[in-house]
Amino acid sequence: MADTNQSKPVVEFPGGDAPSELQITDLVVGDGAEAVPGGKVEVHYVGVEFDSGEEFDSSWNRGESIEFPLRGLIKGWQDGIPGMKVGGRRQLVIPPHLAYGPAGSGHRLGGKTLVFVIDLLDAS
């Protein structure tokens, strides 16, 4: 397991209108292994709602990173993490159609644009 020696990020609230397409911004470019489509990743992350800036989830708050195959995640993560390198920190702004679908989809985050800051700890 990699140790980035980073602490929980403060998500910079983007402001303005929510984007209609995925926005990817590298905050720190890593120099380790590269995440690949369909691969497995270990990450720390923070998620906030675009409109309110309210945090809805954070692996940092649970005190442990999580590991999973990309194919099991929302489309915004499947599209936004590949190409990222271990040691990197990336911000993804994900519109509803690449997150949890439209409002009324049955998910509490349906219809919402989401902002994630993701630290890539490992990729295989």
What does this structure look like?
By secondary structure, the chain is mainly beta. It has a single domain (23-123), classed as Chitinase A, domain 3, CATH 3.10.50. The protein is 8% helix and 32% strand. Strands 1, 2, 3, 4, 5 and 6 form a six-stranded antiparallel β-sheet that branches. The chain starts with 22 loop residues before the first strand and ends with a strand. The model has no long low-confidence stretch (mean pLDDT 92). Keywords: Isomerase, Rotamase. Residues 38-124 form the PPIase FKBP-type domain. Pfam families: FKBP_C.
Give the overall pLDDT as a whole number: 92
**Under the CATH scheme, which architecture would be assigned?**
Roll
Query: DSSP helix count?
Result: 2
Round the Cα radius of gyration to an integer and report it.
14 Å
Summed up, what is this model?
By secondary structure, the chain is mainly beta. The chain has helices spanning 59-62, 75-80; strands spanning 23-28, 40-49, 55-58, 66-69, 89-94, 114-123.
Secondary structure elements and pairings:
Layout (H helix, E strand, L loop, with lengths): L22 E6 L11 E10 L5 E4 H4 L3 E4 L5 H6 L8 E6 L19 E10 L1
Antiparallel strand pairs: 1-5, 2-3, 2-4, 2-6, 5-6
Enzyme class: isomerase
GO molecular function, one term: peptidyl-prolyl cis-trans isomerase activity
Keywords: Isomerase, Rotamase
Based on the model shown, name its key terms.
mainly beta; Chitinase A, domain 3; six-stranded antiparallel β-sheet; 6 strands; peptidyl-prolyl cis-trans isomerase activity
